[in-house]
Design brief:
The structure holds 2 protein chains of 2 kinds. Chain A is mainly β. Chain A has a single domain (5-169), classed as Sandwich (Jelly Rolls), CATH 2.60.120. Chain A is 0% helix and 50% strand. In chain A, the strands form 2 sheets. An 8-stranded antiparallel sheet of chain A has the order 1-12-3-8-9-10-5-6, with no helix packed on it. In chain A, a hairpin with a 7-residue loop joins strand 8 and strand 9. Chain A is globular and about 45 Å long. The relative contact order of chain A is 0.38. Chain B has one domain (26-193). In chain B, strand 10 (126-133) and strand 11 (142-151) form a beta hairpin. In chain B, strands 3-14-5-10-11-12-7-8 form an 8-stranded antiparallel sheet, with no helix packed on it. In chain B, strands 4-13-6-9 form a 4-stranded antiparallel sheet, with no helix packed on it. A two-stranded antiparallel ribbon of chain B has the order 1-2. The relative contact order of chain B is 0.32. Classes of the chains: A mainly beta, B mainly beta. At the A-B interface, strand 1, strand 3, strand 5, strand 8 and strand 12 of A face strand 7, strand 8, strand 11 and strand 12 of B.
Chain lengths: 170, 194
Amino acid sequence: MALNIFKIESVEVSNNASSVTFSSIPQGYTDLVLKFSTRDTDAGTASHFGIIFNGDTGANYTSLFIRGDGSGSVLSFSQTPSYIVASYQSSAGSTANSFGTGEMYIPNYTGSNQKGVSLESMSETNNALAYMNMTAGKWTGTSAITSITAKQTIGGPFVANSTFTLYGIL
Amino acid sequence: MAITSLKSGISTRSGMVGNTLIYPGSYESIASASPSAGTAYVDFTSIPSTYTHLQIRAICRSNDGSAGNNNGIYARFNSDSGSNYSFHFLTGTNAGATGAAGLASQTEMFINAVNPRGGDTANVYSANVIDILDYANTNKYKTVRALTGDALNASGVIRLFSGLWMSATAISSIRITMEGNFAANSQLALYGVN
């Protein structure tokens, strides 16, 4: 059977926004994909945002990373904040008009098991130093995912022209 | 006229009784290329600005006769040969080695540094998925994300790339250049993603 992908919804931030939510996600797909191109107002050259499912802000998430920084340094580590960490995105210290980019894949989002995700995201700037992560994430929730929120957690808000596109896969 | 299901949000092209339902997926083929051996580059031109994102899927091998699995693929947009590109990557190998690197103010964008060459294992090609988000958004510079790699018999490399083209112009053409030229049976396909 051919793989088919369908746009569910896209959001383009028009004014600074601290979060973006996809709600009432249709339950008829097999997997979900979220593509994003984001920048925030944090003073640094890179920051991150968090992704939560079904409004769950409890300590129910784990993120495991492989990180590169453009200089030969590679780290592997994990974090357990109350969201899946989407690192990295461009910030106010990045080259003007540059945005980070990323994609999160959510298999079996309607299943009754805990939800594992894969995610790649990176900041971009015209400098040899920039950050990128390959991430494995987990939400311990066993409910079907009906909403996804991308929210700023350490930096300022998403700036205008940040975009999020959610797809369903059959 | 597309008909949208209130339950699932999925659109169909026709809801007429007796018709097979056809689901209009978000991926549409724009163009594909199978460069002959020795071809230096592939051009995708007249790219419509009507999609949300672009994606290139490619299998590639260099026509360079030596061995070493390290010839690169480069991208250039809208024929811009100025120093308007930067790129970064994260890499891992079968031998356990990892690394990361980046360069600013380049004249083209590095999007894959590992392609088998003529002296490497025969018939092996790199696999490449290259996303260009918001390619027609004139309010932002363009960022590229590429996941690439190849697996030879006794070696292999995987790399995650990101790249920046410092232009707010909508992307209307893409040139993909292979270091050492393309080998026969390399294939590149450009998709528009709604």
